[in-house]
Write a structure and sequence with these properties.
This protein is α/β, with parallel strands linked by helices. The protein is built from eleven helices and 15 strands.
Length: 334
């Protein structure tokens, strides 16, 4: 049976000042569409995977533009619900040198934030699916979305789907206490967890500062004590200079941590890099990659996203494989 992936979340309009300007000085915004699970869906579609994206969008031109942004890359849109008045928006000031990035959300009252349980027919949505993916951002959107995400997880588990979750803690969307209460219930149904140190601290108040173990492995082990995860995966960036970063990742499964090689890189656009990593994990596991190959492929997919402007990771499996497994990964392809 061919794998079919369902991702569920909010796609938003992203507005960024051009040329790395501040909000207070810019007169033009670059407009693209994106959002955690939508980004993962586009990555998977570019990898040749059958993937459907589920959300709710207004039935107006801007809502349709968001749908078109997905459809042009081959993402299935048949289960997108239309209704409501607003699409979520986020404003992004990109990181430049020592100035950190800044995100301002305008998503309160968006179509999906006001969605109800009756909007989504999970029996139909999961009819021929094998995998369900979402992030911790989705239940953080509103109380109703927290309830809907839990309902979706229960239905996916009932139907035997593999369930993956990128914890993705966002302090601008909810408090640690609220995140802990909601995600502690949802994570009971998750098979594959993607989480970095910030997520573990923000949601579950974990402290890896005093452990003698490598901190990502320690966090993975602690999470697996709390929940029935089969794998915990993590990707992280380390600043090596003002303009360069080091990227590495880990997967922890069957009592062992597997680490990728490191990439030293300049960043064009880091938004969506974690979502690209999630797509790499999903692609690897549905293709029965072993743990080491999984972490190398996923890390390379995330690395390449840093070279692509916008939310979506517009790379192919061959490009990821060249970087991950070929000695000539970044040479001119003739």
């Amino acid at each position: 049976m061919k794998d079919k992936i369902i991702t569920f979340g909010e796609i938003m309009l992203r507005l960024s000042p051009e040329n790395n300007e501040r909000f207070t000085q810019c007169h033009e915004f670059e407009a693209v569409y994106g959002g955690g699970e939508a980004n993962t869906a586009v990555s998977l579609a570019n990898f040749g995977v059958d993937v459907n994206y589920v959300t709710k969008l207004p039935n107006h031109t801007i809502g349709q533009a968001a749908v078109n942004a997905l459809r042009q890359y081959g993402v299935g849109i048949d289960d997108i619900v239309r209704g409501g008045d607003q699409i979520g928006i986020y404003f992004l000031e990109k990181k430049t040198s020592q100035r950190p990035s800044n995100v301002i959300y305008n998503r309160s009252g968006s179509a999906i934030a006001l969605a109800t349980e009756d909007d989504f027919d999970w029996d139909k949505i999961f009819g021929d699916a094998t995998w369900f993916h979402f992030s911790g951002i989705t239940p953080a959107i509103s109380d109703s979305m927290a309830d809907i995400t839990l309902i979706a997880c229960k239905k996916a588990k009932e139907k035997g789907l593999t369930i993956s979750c990128d914890l993705n803690y966002r302090s601008k969307l909810w408090s640690s206490e609220k995140a802990n209460a909601v995600m502690s219930e949802i994570c009971k149904y998750v098979d594959i967890c993607i989480a970095n140190e910030d997520d573990a601290v923000g949601i579950f108040s974990m402290d890896a500062s005093n452990t003698t173990e490598e901190k990502n492995a320690y966090i993975a082990k602690e999470l697996m004590k709390m929940f029935p995860f089969k794998m915990v995966a993590s990707v992280w960036r380390t600043e090596t200079s003002i303009t360069t970063f080091k990227l590495q990742s880990m997967v922890y499964t069957n009592g062992k941590a597997y680490y990728s090689k490191e990439y030293f890189m300049h960043i064009l656009d880091y938004i969506g890099a974690g979502d690209a990593y999630c797509a790499g994990i999903i692609y690897s596991l549905i293709n029965n990659y072993d743990a080491q190959k999984t972490v190398e492929f996923s890390n390379a997919a995330s690395c390449l996203k840093h070279t692509v402007s916008g939310d979506f990771n517009l790379v192919t499996v061959d490009e990821v494989n060249r970087l991950a497994f070929s000695e000539s990964g970044n040479e001119v392809q003739r």
